[in-house]
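Revision sheet: structure tokens.
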Amino acid sequence: MKKYIEQGMEYSEYIGLIDRLLDQRKTTGPNQSEEMFNYGKLNRQRMRRLGKTVDLSESLAKRARSIERKMVWLIITESWCGDAAQSIPIFEKIARESSNIKTIYVFRDENLELMDKYLTNDARSIPKLIALDSETLEELGTWGPRPRRAMEYFYEMRETGLEKSEMMENLQRWYLKDKERSIQEEFEEFLTELESVKVAVTA
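Predicted:
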């Protein structure tokens, strides 16, 4: 994991790169179609909106501030990913509440050997958050690619045979209706789980 952390980007670097690419009508990853650029542009707008309008619940903010374990959150993502655009602003708001959480971003398509260790039902689904102990880099837990309720909805839609584009549109409507409540509830529980994991003591 050390090499991914060293090669990865802090949030400000990640956002800066996305914005520079958008100025060139590009997105991250090898697919540089107009469609993918438009996804990237739309998701950047979503991230700006959520960064300004969504506040952490009082209980989640308090839980984040109480974190005593130093962690690195290694986040696998791409800028065209709609689920990432919904989740990353929450990751960052949680990290800002805690001096013990550091976020690092890496791109999926540049790190497939890492991504393939964290598949979701054999799919390279993102975002994927891998929580690591800062000292040992031992894995504490993972989250992603979307809240449990959204995953259930996704699988329900897939069973009906909907086209992928329609499923993605429906998921975005789900996120708008949910107003980030589900992910916040999950992360309050997730933070407690991460602190409870026992790791080997290094000499």
